[in-house]
Every structure is written in structure tokens, then in C-alpha cells.
């Protein structure tokens, strides 16, 4: 009997389109947990290419990784920069 190696699950592998990204982030924002939102932005940034997202956001790659890490607590301005760098918008609905 052969066994398949177990791979670590990575959400970034499933974010192929802007619609995938938008649906993923919408679900995370509905939860409302700031740490989860930062994590999800990190996942999306990895899916899109962390170096390019950092460049577009006007941040260093290292500072972006740090801000979106499990220990990171990004400022709202950083969140907005990352969202814009990803080509997305944050909207409010009633």
C-alpha cells in the first residue's frame, strides 16, 4: 500500500480570480475578527505575489509580512493600502 504525502492546506492556492478573492474576503469581514482579517489579507497577498503587493502598497516585503502575520496588528491605513494594492475596494452596505 502506498500513501500520499500530506500537504499543508493553503487557502492561497484556491484564490485564482478576483471573484474568489472578493468572496473570501467578504466572508472574513463578516466574521469581524481583526486578526482573521489581517491573516486573510496576508493569504490574498501571497496568492497575488507578496513582493508585488508590497511594492504597490508602498511597503517593504518584510514590513508587509510582519503587519499581516499572526502577531501583526496592522494599522487601518496599512489595511487600506493593501486592499488598494490588490485592486479591491472596501464598501459599506446597510
Gist of the model:
This protein has one domain. The protein is 57% helix and 0% strand.
Shape: globular
Distance from first to last alpha carbon: 56 Å
Structural class: mainly alpha
Largest sheet: none
β-strand number: 0
Plain-language structure description:
Helix content is 57%, strand content 0%. It is an all-alpha fold and 94 residues long. Helix 1 packs antiparallel against helix 2 (34-48), helix 2 crosses helix 3 (50-57) and helix 3 (50-57) crosses helix 5 (76-85). It is globular. The relative contact order is 0.15. The mean pLDDT is 91.
How is the topology of this model organized?
Elements: H1 18-31, H2 34-48, H3 50-57, H4 61-67, H5 76-85
Helix pairs in contact: 1-2, 2-3, 3-4, 3-5
Any key phrases for this structure?
94 residues, mainly alpha, globular
